[in-house]
């Protein structure tokens, strides 16, 4: 039996999530024994032809050429996993969705007519079916390893969808909101980072995006968070900015930012 | 609470996505299972799933598994000789109906699996046996090899939601079969397993026909991780289904099931 | 009739002697200490690490350390953790399994001996919480080996409560502030601070406790000051609630409008369940290594607020809305816990009130449900 063929793809992104794969220093050797690297330009310029058993896709769809490329990648991939806030929610660059693109382009680029930008930065799942989404800005390397080992064992990856609060409590971190009055998005943010920021006395910035919304009415109660964030010293503008840091276009956080701006009016 | 090693002794494909595994202890057998009880089956490296027994013969356990998730897919792929970890027996068993009572079995899809031992035991009893089964499609029918045997002693009626070409049986909900069921509602114990909406509808019809709540017995399903009452996932109001279920009569299950949980 | 046993007390040096005696016996002492602006429970190196001179102020959604005017070490109400962190740890490996090349699997249970803990400073409410978890995890048909191993060896030193907090309601639940009759413990202390320093009324509740007490520099006392401090505490609870027949109240209010109101505020973040000293729910983690031939089963705390908690194939989460998840938590805690385990699941410690970021108050919810149920009944 040949080892499953892995491909790692980059769209509009900072490369930080791909780098997480290389950060798996202790596991890299055994990883390369269990998986055949078919396409991973950040690691090697050698490539193998498709199809690929597992494709990890980083970045958002933000340029015209991306549209065709992601469809091709999907066709060539048995299992497609998007990694990171760009790929799962459009990323930081989705901030541009909030205002007209030409305004930015003319300020930043001497010859905007050379650009092939789409009006919006969108998640991969807006264009092709995705088998699994791994959240984070950047993703967590333990979680990446879990997704890969689960793929190899053909089991369900253990990637909890509960709030960051669960992780604070599991690691024994005292709640920074309750005990210190620090504004924190933990209660409405998807777990995965291991509650890194609160462990160092900082509030959660929401890197992993909102907890999931379900048809039955589950989802982040961002409206109930508003008075809490205000009590802890944030203005409505601060709150809108906080929700728009990494996952601006995740629908629930986009809505939360709008709620905050509405309140300010 | 570690899984006890068993081996797949036999594997029978029931339908496209469902197989019946016969499991034999690799060394020491677990305590005897009773019909209605369940085991936690462990597919190495993939995980555990709670599954009611679909048959018991001596030390051998039969489990009929439908591939709906990673664990059940792995179990369905298991071949004779493969290792399967087993914990159990857990939960409550089907009650024995009073002597001379009729037995009515109402199943939805894979819900027929836990009821199979009830049917097998009832075939040997006096009193009437009526088996009503609803499937989504004809291709989902279970235990095709045993049906002729059942039909010799019992009334077996099968209905489907979506007929395929060649289907000549009834189409529609399993509750529509109740009118033709060969049982005396005043002297009948009803055994139900299937999707909850189907069981609710069936119970409603049975109560209306005068079957007492204590004689309507259901096998219920909730998320389960331990089987031992510690993980809390299988709560249904006052019931811990791994301990107080999965087999519960309507007198106990009716109230918690009447609360909309969404 | 037996003459009443003479009462004994120790001073601060006696407390240090008690600590040292526990360490000499090979015990790992866990108790309160100040960390990250809170009084947490942690393994302690000496009695000096106790939170001497610190108190806390609690309110719904709020917790602050406050310096005290005395050196009292136990004049604070419940913090962010409970003893379940040590008895029912957040993560535990249950077993490991290895697959040989012929497909044979060997499963090894994790049965390493547990640390021999001494818990110093268990409040009566928390002692009841331990008893509640005992019933859930060890008194049924199966005994949880992880909890059981840790629980078997633990030495319990209760400290009665003399300084209730703003969210405490143990008097309403009948669990404190003094040690209820019939409690099981090894040693019980009552701390008072006076001009002469700290003193601790001390009594033994077990043979091992008596043995240890005999080694301490104790002196006789009438215990009057200690008794008065506990009695005074009973009158200073931050909250109270009518706890009569909560089981029936919960069963009768499943469709109450109040659940919608609390759902508007609830973040479904799960904090209440994580800080609750009796919440016991767990989920399992199935891990494999990259070769796929080594697997491990872990379990970790879970919560009825997690959407996956009630997940069923083909159905999704049985309980999805904030309304149904909060209702599951409260009705289980106060109602169906009786059906399942023969007691209330609430001990009145107030943690769920203080550590709820938006300050949802269980006592307020009960009162509102009772009012709604009363109004419905009167109609």
SSE topology sketch:
The complex is a heterotrimer of chains A (265), B (262) and C (379).
Chain A: E1 5-10, H1 16-22, H2 28-34, E2 36-39, E3 52-58, E4 61-63, H3 64-76, E5 77-83, H4 85-89, H5 101-108, E6 117-122, E7 132-134, H6 141-153, H7 164-171, H8 176-180, H9 196-199, H10 222-231, H11 236-243, H12 251-264
Parallel strand pairs in A: 1-2, 1-3, 3-5, 5-7
Antiparallel strand pairs in A: 4-6
Helix pairs in contact in A: 11-12
Chain B: E1 4-15, E2 18-25, E3 38-43, E4 47-52, E5 55-57, E6 60-66, H1 70-77, E7 83-90, E8 102-108, H2 112-123, E9 129-135, H3 147-153, E10 155-160, E11 188-193, H4 196-208, E12 216-219, E13 235-236, E14 239-240, E15 247-249, H5 250-258
Parallel strand pairs in B: 8-9, 8-11, 9-10, 11-12
Antiparallel strand pairs in B: 1-2, 1-7, 2-6, 3-4, 3-7, 5-6, 12-15, 13-14
Chain C: E1 7-11, H1 12-24, E2 28-35, E3 38-43, E4 54-59, E5 62-67, H2 84-87, E6 91-99, E7 105-109, E8 117-122, H3 124-138, H4 145-152, E9 155-159, H5 170-173, E10 187-194, E11 197-204, H6 207-214, E12 219-221, H7 224-234, H8 246-252, H9 258-265, H10 271-275, E13 282-288, E14 294-301, E15 311-312, E16 316-317, H11 322-341, H12 351-354, H13 362-378
Parallel strand pairs in C: 2-8, 8-9, 9-10
Antiparallel strand pairs in C: 1-11, 1-12, 2-3, 4-5, 6-7, 6-14, 10-11, 13-14, 15-16
Helix pairs in contact in C: 8-11, 8-13, 9-11
Distinctive features:
heterotrimer, A: 265 residues, alpha/beta, Rossmann fold, 2 domains, two-stranded antiparallel ribbon, B: 262 residues, Elongation Factor Tu (Ef-tu), domain 3, seven-stranded antiparallel sheet, six-stranded mixed sheet, 5 helices, 15 strands, 19% helix, 33% strand
Characterization of this structure:
The complex is a heterotrimer of chains A (265), B (262) and C (379). Chain A has 265 residues and is of the alpha/beta class. In chain A, 38% of the residues lie in helices and 14% in strands. Chain A has 12 helices and 7 strands. In chain A, helix 11 (236-243) packs antiparallel against helix 12 (251-264). Chain A starts with a strand and ends with a helix. Chain B has 262 residues and is an alpha/beta fold. Chain B is built from 5 helices and 15 strands. In chain B, the strands form 3 sheets. In chain B, strands 4-3-7-1-2-6-5 form a 7-stranded antiparallel sheet. In chain B, strands 10-9-8-11-12-15 form a 6-stranded mixed sheet, with helices on both faces. Chain B has a two-stranded antiparallel sheet with strand order 13-14. Chain C has 379 residues and is α+β, with helices and mostly antiparallel strands. Chain C has helices at residues 12-24, 84-87, 124-138, 145-152, 170-173, 207-214, 224-234, 246-252, 258-265, 271-275, 322-341, 351-354, 362-378; strands at residues 7-11, 28-35, 38-43, 54-59, 62-67, 91-99, 105-109, 117-122, 155-159, 187-194, 197-204, 219-221, 282-288, 294-301, 311-312, 316-317. Chains A and C meet through helix 2, helix 6, helix 7, helix 8 and helix 10 of A and strand 5, helix 10, strand 13, strand 14 and strand 16 of C.
């Amino acid at each position: 039996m040949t080892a499953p063929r892995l491909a790692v793809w980059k769209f509009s992104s900072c490369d930080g999530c791909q780098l997480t794969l290389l950060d798996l220093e202790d596991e890299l050797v055994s990883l390369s024994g269990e998986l055949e690297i078919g396409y991973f330009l950040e690691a090697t310029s050698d490539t193998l032809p498709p199809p690929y058993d597992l494709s990890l896709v980083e970045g958002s769809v933000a340029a015209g050429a991306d549209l065709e490329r992601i469809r091709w990648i999907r066709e060539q991939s048995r299992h497609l996993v998007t990694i990171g806030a760009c790929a799962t929610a459009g990323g930081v660059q989705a901030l541009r969705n909030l205002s007209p693109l030409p305004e930015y382009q003319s300020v930043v680029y001497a010859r905007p007519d050379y650009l092939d930008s789409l009006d919006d930065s969108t998640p991969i799942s807006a264009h092709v079916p995705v088998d699994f989404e791994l959240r984070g800005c950047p993703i967590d390397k333990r979680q990446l390893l879990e997704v890969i080992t689960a793929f190899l064992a053909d089991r369900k990856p253990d990637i909890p969808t509960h709030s960051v609060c669960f992780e604070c409590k599991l690691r024994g971190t005292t709640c920074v909101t309750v005990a210190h009055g620090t504004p924190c998005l933990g209660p409405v943010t998807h777990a995965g980072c291991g509650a890194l920021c609160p462990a160092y006395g900082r509030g959660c910035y929401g890197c992993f995006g909102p907890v999931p919304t379900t048809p039955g009415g589950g989802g982040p109660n961002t409206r109930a968070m508003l008075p809490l964030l205000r009590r802890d010293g944030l203005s409505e503008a601060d709150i809108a900015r906080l929700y728009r840091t990494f996952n601006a276009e995740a629908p629930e956080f986009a809505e939360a930012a709008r709620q905050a701006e509405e309140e300010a009016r | 609470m570690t899984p006890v090693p068993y081996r797949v002794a036999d594997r029978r494909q029931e339908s496209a996505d469902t197989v019946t595994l016969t499991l034999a202890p690799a060394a020491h057998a677990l305590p005897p299972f009773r019909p209605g009880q369940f085991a936690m089956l462990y597919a190495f490296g993939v995980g555990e799933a709670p599954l009611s027994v679909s048959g018991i013969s001596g030390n051998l356990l039969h489990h009929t598994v439908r591939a709906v998730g990673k664990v059940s897919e792995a179990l369905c792929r298991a071949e004779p000789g493969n290792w399967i970890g087993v914990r159990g027996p857990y939960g409550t068993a089907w009650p024995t109906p009073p002597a001379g009572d009729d037995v009515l079995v109402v199943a939805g899809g894979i819900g027929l699996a836990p009821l199979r031992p009830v049917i097998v035991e009832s075939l040997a009893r006096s009193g009437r046996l009526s088996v009503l089964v609803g499937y989504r499609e004809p291709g989902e029918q279970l235990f095709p090899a045993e049906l002729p045997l059942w039909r010799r002693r019992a009334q077996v009626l099968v209905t489907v939601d979506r007929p395929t070409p060649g289907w000549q049986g009834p189409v529609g909900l399993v509750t529509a079969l109740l009118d033709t069921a060969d049982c005396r509602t005043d002297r009948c114990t009803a055994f139900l397993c299937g999707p909850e909406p189907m069981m609710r509808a069936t119970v409603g019809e049975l109560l209306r026909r005068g079957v007492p709540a204590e004689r309507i017995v259901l096998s219920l399903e909730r998320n389960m991780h331990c089987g031992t009452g510690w993980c809390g996932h299988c709560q249904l109001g006052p019931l811990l289904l791994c301990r107080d279920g999965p087999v519960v009569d309507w007198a106990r299950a009716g109230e918690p099931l009447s609360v909309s949980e969404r | 009739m037996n003459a009443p046993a003479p009462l004994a007390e120790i001073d601060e040096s006696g407390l240090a002697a008690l600590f040292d005696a526990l360490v000499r016996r090979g015990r790992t002492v866990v108790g309160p200490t100040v960390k990250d602006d809170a009084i947490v429970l942690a393994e302690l190196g000496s009695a000096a690490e106790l939170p001497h001179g610190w108190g806390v102020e609690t309110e719904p959604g709020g917790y602050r350390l406050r310096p005290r005017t005395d050196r009292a070490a136990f004049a604070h109400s419940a913090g962010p953790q409970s003893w379940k962190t040590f008895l029912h740890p957040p993560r535990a490996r249950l077993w490991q399994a290895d697959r040989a090349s012929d497909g044979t699997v060997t499963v090894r249970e994790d049965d390493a001996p547990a640390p021999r803990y001494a818990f110093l400073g268990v409040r009566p409410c928390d002692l009841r919480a331990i008893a509640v978890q005992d019933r859930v995890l060890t008194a049924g048909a199966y005994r949880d080996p992880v909890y059981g191993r840790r629980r078997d060896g633990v030495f319990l030193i209760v400290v009665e409560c003399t300084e209730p907090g703003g969210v405490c309601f143990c008097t309403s639940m009948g669990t404190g502030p003094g040690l209820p009759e019939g409690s099981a413990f090894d040693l019980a202390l009552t701390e008072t601070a006076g001009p002469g320093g700290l003193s601790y009324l001390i009594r033994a509740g077990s043979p091992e406790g008596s043995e240890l007490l005999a080694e301490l520099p104790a002196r006789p006392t009438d215990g009057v000051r200690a008794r008065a401090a506990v009695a005074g505490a009973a009158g200073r609870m931050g909250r109270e609630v009518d706890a009569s027949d909560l089981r029936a109240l919960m069963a009768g209010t499943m469709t109450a409008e109040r659940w919608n109101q609390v759902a508007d505020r609830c973040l479904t973040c799960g904090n209440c369940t994580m800080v609750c000293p009796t919440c016991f729910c767990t989920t399992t983690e199935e891990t494999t290594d990259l070769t796929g031939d080594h697997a491990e089963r872990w379990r970790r705390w879970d919560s009825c607020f997690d959407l996956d908690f009630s997940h069923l194939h083909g159905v999704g989460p049985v309980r999805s809305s904030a309304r149904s998840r909060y209702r599951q938590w409260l009705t289980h805690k106060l109602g169906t816990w009786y059906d399942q385990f023969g007691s209330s699941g609430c001990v009145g410690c107030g943690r769920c009130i203080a550590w709820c970021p938006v300050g949802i108050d269980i006592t307020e919810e009960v009162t509102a449900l009772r009012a709604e149920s009363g109004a419905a009944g009167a109609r």
